Amino acid sequence: MRNPLQVALDFAVARSQEAEALFKEWAPRVRDPEVQALFAQLAAGERGRVEMLSRMIPEELAPPGGETFGLTDLLVHPKTVRHPTLEKTVRLAIRHKEVSASLYERIAGFDGEACSFFRAMADADRRAMRALEAYADRLTEGEASLTPPQ
After folding, report:
1. pLDDT in tens, 32-51
2. CB contact burial 76-86 (16+ within 10 A = b; e otherwise)
3. Is 147 a member of any domain?
4. How many domains does one find in the chain?
5. 146 in a domain, yes or no?
6. 4: which residues sit within 8 A by CB, 6+ positions away?
7. CA distance 105 to 129
8. Stretch 110-116: mean pLDDT, rounded?
9. Which domain range does residue 14 map to?
């Protein structure tokens, strides 16, 4: 059986890579410069997370022999849609942030060497969620918020 902490690290890396790709794909398609900047900032943040998480080892997440109960329950992969609209993409990004914030908060609770790092990432994800939710509230289906296809 694989170490659940390594499974969580691998999961976090994969989800950050997916989120980075999502934000990079959509940033140039959005007309609103503020949202373009938000997506670009979120993509860069995810890139940094991938780099940091890729260098971590399970022993940094929890003290030796520490309890990791409930960790694998948080490894939820948000479902994507086949032909996403901007609104659906923003809702998916919110769900990604929700999942990662919960996972990072749980890992921070293990009080390992990296607990403050994970607590900071959970806080950053909650801030990003609030920004994305504020933008999602302004969106309506069919709103002309995307650049026209080339």
Report:
1. 888 899 999 999 999 999 99
2. eebeeeeeeeb
3. no
4. 1
5. no
6. 68, 71, 72
7. 15
8. 91
9. 4-63+71-138
Res 77 pLDDT > 90? no
Residue the block writes with tokens 């990072």: 104
Provide the whole-model pTM.
0.83
**Chain centroid to CA 106:** 15
List the CATH number of the domain containing 112. 1.20.1260.10
User: Percent of the chain, pLDDT > 70?
Assistant: 82
Whether 149 maps to a domain, the answer reads no
The token duo for 113 is 């060497």
d(CA 92, CA 87): 9
Name the phi and psi angles at 118, rounded to 5. -70, -35
Q: CA–CA separation, 98 vs 78, rounded Å?
A: 10
